[in-house]
Amino acid sequence: MVMATGIVSLAVHDDGLDLAAKALLWLNLAVFILFWVLTFIRLIFFRAQLIYDATHHFHSAAFLTMVAATCILGCQFVELMSWISVAKLLWFAGIALWTLLIYTFFSVVTMLDPTPPLEAGINGVWLLTVVSTESVSVLGALIARSRAELSRCSFSPWSSASPAAPPMRFSLR
Fold first, then answer.
1. Number of CB atoms found within 10 A of residue 2's CB
2. Rounded to an integer, what distance in angstroms lies between the CA atom of residue 73 and that of residue 158?
3. Nearest to 120 by CA among 109, 105, 111
4. 8 Å CB contact between 14 and 75
5. For range 137-156, the mean pLDDT
């Protein structure tokens, strides 16, 4: 919900409908907070089920939506409000979540038994490993103020950027 609403909000903003984009931002923030409250309630009252889901082969990757939602909300704050400090806070939270959840997921799928056969074990939810990583990278790039900061802010374990690379030219619109 938060990922989709954030993406629609940013697209509406690109089309020049700033009032609708900001309304979606505030709706998104309310839903984001609600989801975190519900997650903490689940952690308090249904801890065993939450841990089971986080460490289950078929459910673990779904937790990576928390990373993407956090970083897309940060992108909204950068693009719609120019609130870089809020976006940085969300970016650091996204990095922390990404680190915890990506390593949990790959540990679960490689080390826990029983591991299902390959054709049964890989599904579309695995794409969240890419989506969550990209969301952290995109928010880091939006936060960056210069080429020098870009190498520190953009985050991808598969990046091959080098300081000797020619200046990057890209547009976010």
1. 24
2. 24
3. 109
4. no
5. 67
